[in-house]
TrEMBL record:
Belongs to the UPF0065 (bug) family. Gene3D superfamilies: Bordetella uptake gene, domain 1, Periplasmic binding protein-like II. It comes from Ramlibacter lithotrophicus. Signal peptide: none annotated. This is Tripartite tricarboxylate transporter substrate binding protein. InterPro entries: BUG, Bug_dom1. It holds the Pfam family TctC. It comes from the Bacteria.
Amino acid sequence: MNKRHLLRVAVLGAGALLLAGAGWTQDFPPKKPVTLMVGFAPGGAADAAARLIAKKLTENIGQTVLVENKAGAGGNIAHQLTANGPSDGSLLLFGSIGPLTIAPHMMKLPYDPFRDLAPVSGAVHFPNVLVVNASSSIKNLADYIAQAKKEPRSITFASTGSGSASHLTGELFAQRANVELVHVPYRGGAPAMQDLLAGRITGYFAAPPTALPHIEAGRLTPIATTGLTRPAYMPNLPTVAESGFPGFEALNWYCFVASAKTPVPLLDRWNQEIVKVLNDASVREALARHGLTPHPTTRPELLAFMRKESAQWGDIVRQRKITAE
């Protein structure tokens, strides 16, 4: 084979690769409606944010993006379904801190977040807010701690499931405050809130979208937020960090992931579309009204962030000897 023939083969090969890549981008958006799966029940923070973003994605790409709630196992069921799901770009997951970076340290999962799921983009992050029923005698964080010390294990705290952000926030606080709290897992933010409003549990490290309407209506008393700084929507509410626990920070977050079998060009295209939506002024304003901060990222940035969070929460799981309930 002479040099001229070799050059021709190389050029044709390169062209075929370019066409293959172009073919993937031409398949966007998918020809069928896109599913954005959420691992929690309707009415919570994940559901609220996902629906806002899905609406704008639908407008931008000209294809319907449907939110599908698959609650259970602290969100792990939805993550497993996505890991084993279609890889044609028609299924995205509103991934969450628990199944991606906490649960793997607590139990043997049927999927590996870093092997079976591909990062697409960050979505939103926010601090939790510790709330109690307005009829409770607890009015501030000092009262909360005093009761926990006076009557060990008398205080129950809700979460969106074992291994969720709200669960680990409670465990981290119990460790720092040296108190005994009783964890009560639920299948999402909405059912947890229902029991708190009914007086069946003491408190809940809740997501802002779930708690704010009830705080404004006077049904819940906010005790403290879990970020390092006070959120703009609660400027008068102290943080746990400034209430005697310097450096305390426990942020909740959601991101977009897909099956790891999804071709990279499709993942990159979804990243572009999601980042575009999260940078849209109307979307940012709508998310802010729910107490959520947009957090668009590149795919490598999200992967690095997930690895950092996994290391941090893995330490807490081991120190607190937390297991799946």
